[in-house]
Design brief:
The protein has an eight-stranded antiparallel beta sheet with strand order 1-6-8-7-3-4-2-5. It is an alpha+beta fold. The N and C termini lie far apart (30 Å). The protein has one domain: Multidrug-efflux Transporter 1 Regulator Bmrr, Chain A (Alpha-Beta Barrel). The longest helix is centred in the first third of the chain and has 12 residues. The chain is globular.
């Protein structure tokens, strides 16, 4: 696994996604991705995402997701909808993550220590393929 550097990543537009909430974290994550994959039927034109945050009770809420191909697709497929907001994120790419899945968690722990993160934001995973994932945490616009 290559050592990646932390950078500011600017998401230039909102991304509408359809998602399924994992029953538990981390054990329910794979099942949530399997459910999303079954509902969409085809991966063509899709990018996979993971969205997570810590709720008021200290539990991690995790949503497995893909981009919507048309407005209202989430509702039509019986999924939740969510919009990843545009703006600045602190980010790092984890390469070959399947060989070291804990590297994703370790990367987020590092990113969450940045003093500029949005305390009301969330973590985003953007899966480029079966090997690489961009880990991002929303930044507070007033702190950057």
């Amino acid at each position: 696994m290559a050592i990646m550097t932390t950078e500011i990543f600017d998401l230039d537009k909102e991304i509408k996604i359809l998602c399924v909430t994992a029953t538990t974290f981390p054990n329910g994550v794979m099942g949530a991705f399997e459910t999303v994959t079954k509902k969409i039927g085809s991966n063509e034109g899709r990018t996979y995402y993971g969205i997570s945050w810590i709720d008021k009770n200290g539990n991690i809420t995790y949503k497995a997701a893909v981009n919507e191909l048309e407005n209202g697709e989430a509702e039509k497929l019986g999924c939740e909808s969510f919009t990843i907001r545009k703006g600045a994120y602190i980010s790092e790419i984890v390469t070959d993550f399947m060989k070291n899945i804990p590297a994703i968690s370790e990367t987020f722990m590092k990113l969450l220590n940045d003093p500029c993160i949005d305390k009301n934001g969330y973590c985003v995973e953007i899966y480029f393929d079966q090997k690489d994932v961009r880990c991002m945490v929303t930044l507070d616009p007033s702190k950057i």
